[in-house]
Amino acid sequence: MLQRLISATVLPWLWIGGTGLVPETVTIPSISFTPSAPVLSAQASPISNEAILAEINRLRRDPAAYADWLEETRPYYEGNVLSWPGEPRIRTVEGTRALENAIAVLRQTQPLPPIELSMGLSQAANDHVQDLQQHNRLSSQGSDDSTAHDRVGQYGIYEGNFQELVSEGLKSPAAIVAGLVVDDGNTSRSYRRALLQEEFRYAGIQCLPRGSLALCVTNFAVVYTAFGEVADTPFGETVTIEDDDPFTRPLTPEVLAQLAADVIAETNRVRADPANYATKLEALRPYYQRDLVRIPGQPTVRTVEGVAALDEAIAALKSTAPVPTLEVSSGLSQGAADHANDIGPRGGQGHYGLDASAPLDRATRYGTVPPGNLLGENISFGPPTLAEWHVIQLLVDDDFPSRGHREAMLRPRYRLAGSACAPHTVFRLVCVVTYASDYEEQ
């Protein structure tokens, strides 16, 4: 069944975020129509978000039975022309070939969990479909250059994969969903794959009439928590998701300065009682799903080692004696700021600056490290303005076999530290912490 299709896919946080647009557009000529086949019973449903969702869940609940139902639409095809009862006749690209492909795939597909309607995702879908209608467009990009990520972020936080489908096709709920399933003219069958993606649990839907057809925007997410909703945290508490979200909060100088101070304060909590801090890491275990970490209200994180690195960090903390807490050094903080402000705007990583400066070079711009003393540097990357998030990242030290970040944070000889955070063009945020066993300020 022919649809004009636009898809925007947002990948989960793999320490980076990405958005891809796949435009797939074909022409839909209108043809006069006289019904020549019986109307299927599902046609009687009113056009509504709930009715469309019911069709999606009918598909997911029993794909093989849906294939049987879809097979009954064969008489509606005359070559490449589709004459769905009660709808305008449209010319498809593939004729029944796409239909047969859909039927074959569905017969091999196992039942899937149902999808729940999300008001936040539906509000985002409504914003976009109204914009497309007003400007007579068909695109995943808004007239204000907004992306799908921007729109859903106005109403809440999604976790894991997210996908937006923009389509123009027939009007009834049964025909709308059948069109997405058949996915005519879309060689990747990306719309069908979205409908059948097992991990999707939430959807937001909005369709508007456009002439004799329907313009629809459908958002899918693994988890979506709307602002004002309550979510559990890994630490046995419940929180209300607010607009002032640490994953999207504007990175003002005040926010960055507070985060830098909080990172050292959180580091001192670890150093003062490592065994007690291990309980925070233990609380994260239920949120690991193989290599993914899925915490309500936060983007999903993909790890390399999975829960093994977490368990190793827990064991290490439980066997570590308390070490002295760190005093804040102005000079070390200035050196850390130099590096954060160097690598952040250019999306850099690593301990060497654009000018080839090393941590010791930057520290000695603002003071002196006496002979025989130690100096080290840790760098964390990631989206949230949460000190705990950055400190735990360094403690778990996923994909770093030496666990050098954890070792540096817990090194007993360190007595001083400076920290600075800056916007990062790839990871959103970078925080640099410089440690020293002794340091003389200028």
* Structural class determined from secondary elements: alpha+beta
Number of separate strands: 20
CATH architectural arrangement of the largest domain: 3-Layer(aba) Sandwich
Within the largest sheet, what's the order of strands?
2-1-7-9-8-6
Distance between the termini: 73 Å
Strand content: 15-25%
Instruction: Report the top-level CATH class of the largest domain.
Output: Alpha Beta
Number of helices: 14
CATH superfamily of the largest domain: CAP
Helix fraction by DSSP (H/I, runs of at least 4)? 25-40%
Mean pLDDT: 84
Low-confidence stretches: 7-46, 235-239
Rg from alpha-carbon coordinates: 27 Å
Query: Total domains, how many?
Result: 2
- Main beta-sheet strand count, sense and barrel state: 6 strands, mixed
Q: What's the overall geometry?
A: elongated
CATH topology of the largest domain: Pathogenesis-related Protein p14a
What does this structure look like?
The protein has two domains: 49-226, CAP (Pathogenesis-related Protein p14a), CATH 3.40.33; 253-441, CAP (Pathogenesis-related Protein p14a), CATH 3.40.33. The protein contains 14 helices and 20 strands. It has helices at residues 49-61, 63-71, 96-107, 119-135, 148-153, 173-182, 190-195, 253-272, 274-282, 307-318, 330-343, 359-363, 387-396, 404-409, and strands at residues 4-10, 19-24, 77-78, 81-82, 90-91, 116-117, 156-169, 202-210, 213-226, 230-232, 238-240, 288-289, 292-293, 301-302, 327-328, 367-368, 375-381, 416-424, 428-436, 440-441. The strands form six sheets. It has a six-stranded mixed sheet with strand order 2-1-7-9-8-6. A four-stranded mixed sheet has the order 15-18-19-17. The chain starts with a strand and ends with a strand.
